[in-house]
Structures
1.
Amino acid sequence: MLTRVRPALAIFFVLLWPGAAAADTPTLTLKAPRATSYGHRIEFDGRLSPAVAGARIRLYRGKDWIATAAARADGSYRIPVAVASPGPFHVGWLGFVSPEVTIRIVPRLDASFVGTPVVGSKLTFHARLTPAQAGSLRVRVYRDGKPSFDQFFAGDVRVSIGTTRFAKLRIALDSVPREGYATVTKTLDTQLLPPTLSYGSTSPALPTLLRQLGALHYSIPSVSDSFTGDVLESVYAFEKVQGLDRTGVVDARFWTRLANPRIPKPRYPNPADHIEIDKAHQVLYIVRGGQISMIIPVSTAGIAGYYTPEGKFAIYRKVVGYDPSPLGVLLNPMYFVGGYAIHGNPNVPPYPASHGCVRVPNYVIYRIFDAEPYGETVYVYS
């Protein structure tokens, strides 16, 4: 039951409603859903008793009038409204008012990634809680399941996501609601994908590529973020062993195979330390303790009329620096039979192209020259 606001209004009410008895004090009820989504259209309803058909029932949010509806013959009314705040709400008629109603509002939470989820690319996370007065947002970022960021924000959220390495990303959002608003949560997942890399590329993904190749015992140059000719040779070596097309491009297929590679094994068990030159795959294996310790790209004979001999040989001569020969100048050659040597060359294509020697990249010959002793066994096979 509600009391009249001013005596004069009661007199006015009686004059308008001559059939009413003095005891018939008007009452207003108000009902609404206990909770709704922000901006959702709901219906406020209730009843004026005693009934007054056509009575103009006004809906208020606090002191602000927001809508009006006419009462039916039985005194009932219905007021549809798109709700943007929890209230409190009440209705009034001729100075009589209903009890207040508060509605719990479920705010809208929008969140998305902006950019490309590729290593080395710009990636940003955006989030917005609507309405802004619904509360603040807690943003947590997980990389491969480990927390890496945890912060509270008011208003729009813009977070720059680091993309220097591969990772599975999860963004967890939780609102910290103000009174009258519900808690909302949202989780977004994405995978930082590897980029396509080729000669001349610069990318923060390159150090990761080289470290992974090195862990698989492929010869690699100094780790950097530039795709140099030496990096290209390492990529060729991997493609050769894995049976991939020798494109020199690190694409999705390359990355997939890198995650689950074929692991080569020496063909010969003895001696425990030796060298194997696999002409079919165009690679050289340094074998230590019966295990492959380094995989090096090579180029063997590929010119008509020339060949690289096959069999079991041994290093019998080594020349420091450049050694002139009838077919060119050899860098740090290690001769294993006749005039055939393993030597450095600035051009080691992914196919047979030499006059018969075994070309290896220059940076590799500097690394292995001192480590390979005289008498080291060299196997050459197809």
2.
Amino acid sequence: MEVAPRGIDPEIWKALVPSENPLTPTRVALGERLYFERKLSRDGSVSCSTCHDVRKGFTDGRLVSEGIGAKLGRRNAPTTLNAALQRDQFWDGRAASLEEQAGMPILNPIEMGQPSRDAVVRTLAGDPDYVRLFKEAYGREPNYTDLERAIASFERTLIFLDSPFDDFLGGKTEALSPDAQEGWRLFNGKGRCVACHRLNASNPLGTDFIYHNIGVAARSRDFEALAHKASGELGSEGASKETLDKLALETDLSELGRFLVTRRRADIGAFKTQQLRNVGITAPYMHDGSLQTLWDVMDHYNKGGEANSYLDGGIEPLALSEKEIDQLVAFLFGLTDHRFADLNEAARRKQEERAHMTRPLRDTDLALRKVLPFEDRVLERKR
């Protein structure tokens, strides 16, 4: 299983698989079973697949995820498709690897709610099938480190990079519609998408892997007050992994994004540039799920985001026409793997219907922004 997935350079893939956790069929099989295992949650109601559902593009289709006892977090669930190709995990990058990420939701009180690693291991050790599977995969009794490694191993098999766009790059010009092809041109030109969503053979995900404040939460959040509060919560020595997890998922400080991890003021309100692969089937969008369709996403960028003191310098109005927005969206739907073709088409139809229903409201908001100068827009958002 050391063979690199299609579309990934073998040397890059070799660097992405930790030497202490090489891929083997038994580890992947164990990880797949654990991924769907509800016994990993305290009340037996939630598994990894609850928020990363195979039928929903390995997301949950919700604004923010729901854990045990119908508890809601503060973040939208990113897809686990191609997660193995990310440099770090979560919207704020607070986990450095797939292994580290895999173990955190199990212990978070509003996600899977287990009280301790030992409690999880006791549950697994009481199941003869799991005892056998752990021994086959790692040669040991069930333990938490190998649980994390197994889930990460399974997730490394979720590479989905075979899309109409890839066919187009391979010379099949008919793989993308004329509108989608024009969207690709806009993506690299007037739309300026490529500034953060780099998309090429050496970077097939369409991300720069870094963090930007694009003004998603600025309409309703006072970043200065949140940053001041966070400084007290984080302490002078920095916060533990468990504390960061709590602040990110259970409090308003979630909106500070990467700042919670780095405590750099430049990271206030900044979140990871998400991959564009399979984006058509992973709605809703942004860290808080506040944008329902890809048309909403393009409108957000077209109007220049929400004004705030930490807005990334590259976020500014684009002056895209409605036709150009439609073309860009057509291109984005062309980035979905062929294996999700039916789901992609259903999502496109659903989003398009919703987008056309809300377009008059978006046009009104955009017109207001053209009239009000920048300073007045800031004041408008604070009222």
3.
Amino acid sequence: MEIKSVAIIGSGTMGNGIAHVFALSGFSVLLVDIREEYLQNALKTIQKNLERQVKKEIITEESARQALGRIATSISLEDCKESEVVIEAVVEDLKIKKDVFSRLDRISKEEAIFATNTSSLSITTLAASTNRPQQFIGMHFMNPVPVMKLVEIIRGLTTSDETCRTIIDLAKQLGKVPVEVNDFPGFISNRLLMPMLNEAMFCLMEGVAEKESIDTVMKLGMAHPMGPLELADFIGLDVCLAIMEVLYAGFRDSKYRPCPLLVKMVSAGYLGRKTGKGFYEYPAEKK
């Protein structure tokens, strides 16, 4: 199936990044969210990121202008009815995601493919909320989407070979590198990454070293661009906790137990960059 139009549900950090790369690659994009102000903020972010690419001479001004022109917005799921692929990028909550897909299933045309950008939740479970599990797949982009090359392509239990081939080809058209994985908690990326961040939090909680020392060891000793605590702040501590809870529940193994310090910080509302405070403070970004 030739894909020309894509709908993206959710206009936050991941949603607007996904819209950015699809529009820049020549696709017609419909960006959907529950409030108009969210959509306008997303368009401003996309424009700013396109301008950054122009400044770095990655793209031309004309390419940026055309990309913006390919993005339409809506506050109604009904407008997704003609989209060939619908990508969900809403909050990492199983109940909310299932509700979105159940509603989309009644609206979308029969041949449409559903993809979820979930970073850890079961593809098979989400697919079961629809009547098209064979046309359901995980398409996990990395943050920031316009920069990062990897896309995890996750097959659910009943995802068809045709659906998988179509989405792998679609990722390649975006200039991404698709990696096919099977449906296990955390897939590959977060099954490896999150326990490392969680262990860094245990090191801090137990007094092994100060936060700066922990991050410096990983940056200078392991050539990581960001230290684990700094990266956790960037991702969002609430997101880190949600993924650790999925891993812990999915594998029932104590090695995935969320660090109590992480739980406490999320309870206090210290979520990282997006709230201005996490393991570090970000006064300029406090909302």
4.
Amino acid sequence: MSQPSTHQTRRDVLKTMGLLGGVSAFGLASASAQETPAKPSGFYAELKTLVDQTPLVDSHEHLPDERQRLTDSKRWTLLFAHYFSDDFVSAGLDRESVFGKTANNVEPLELWRRLQPYWNAVKNTGYGQAARISIRELYGIEELNETTIPLLQESVGKLITKGFYRRCLQEHAGIESCQVDRGPDSETRHPGLLLQDINIHSMLSVDTRKLSRHAETPVKDLSDWHELIRQVFKKYAPFATAIKTAIAYGRGIDFEKVSPEAAEEPLKKRLEAQPLTGEEQKRLEDHLFWFCVEQADAYELPVKLHTGYYVGNNNMPIERLSKNPDQAAALCRLSPNTRWTFMHTCYPFGREMIAVAKNCPCAHLQTCWAWIIDPIGTKNFLKEYLVTAPANKIHVFGGDYSFVENSFGHSRIARHGVFSALSELVDEGYMNQDEAMELVEPLLRGNAHRIFSLEKKYAAAKNVPWK
């Protein structure tokens, strides 16, 4: 059994390091199934406090810069637009009626009346919980109804003022920093808070429009395209935390090593806007993927890959997703010195992905997005992972939102899930109390610091040339 004095000493050390403080203990709606039951021992209260107060590293977001949000629409339905709208559609809502362009001029109360018939069906999903937590704790609104919707609309506008990113992320959510996936060359005005990944999608698809400003001369062949990619990496890799692609939305992650000679003709056809066969497109993507991986390795950047579940509705090929773990293992065999980072627990094929992390030294896993896809399933995934694979190869949070307000709600669900997973492992005898306490800092923060070289990136962020 652990000794209280040992835990207090550890917390004092964390406080000295600046790793404690700034986050109030979170609570879910009173009717929520996630409400923490009373525990007979003081250990659980101490574990919960440590989980709630240890700063989080947020390893995946889609946040635009704050300056864009200050000028964008401030409609209350934005809190439901990213992800949560998918649950409403699955429940029967016509997406266009609330979230489409035709709804831009609809009064706030009328939008609620259109959503309300589906509210009870979706409010307890992970997406629903994240939105409800944010609404309650950021705006002080416990329940949504015709009386509170006008207040919510007013409150949303009041929150979105200069500095609200830091208030939401750091002061309210206790998030140390975010890793943002926005494009190949994002130049944020908040480089220490919104660290940037290099999204390589436009490099794989040969999107000359998106990368044209980096080209000193027109791209005429594969050699020119290689050089353009090198220039992007040269400029942004010192400040980036990883490279990332969500190409798995359109194909498998079965990237083969393809020679430049075999990729030259498809590249030429792409530049000439000629159609490519499926085989030619895969050959070109495969070659360019490995070229980007070589660049990432040279700059010591991890490679983040989307795996598993799809955003949206009526678009998820489960059979293809089921192959992601096997293909991930193949990537590890092909390039064992790359820091592979497989995202979203490959939901719903998490157990297979745990096997990859257990077997392959270079495989790392992230639960980004997963806590709001399936909160209980992700808690169980974390429990299984911690008694199966090395605990230093998993990081437990990435908000994965376009709106910072909901990243706050997601962070509360993730903290609750980590606490639940660790406390259940203690209850079930798989670890003792000291061991559970010792895992909190690595899971929430420490592993990400090592995997993404964050101290180095924080130092570099102070000197970005575009700030």
